[in-house]
Amino acid sequence: xxxxxxxxxxxxxxxxxxxxxxxxxxxxxxxxxxxxxxxxxxxxxxxxxxxxxxxx
Length: 56
Hints:
Elements: H1 6-25, H2 29-48
């Protein structure tokens, strides 16, 4: 399995937040909230340093 770099995670988080804003503008608040929650999860992974990434 390929591991994501910190830059990959940053791009992913940015993309999800952009999509969340777009969905909110369209009135799809549930989808926007879900995308925001996923982005927050990615941020938590980044802040933890991926310390659990070596566990399978």
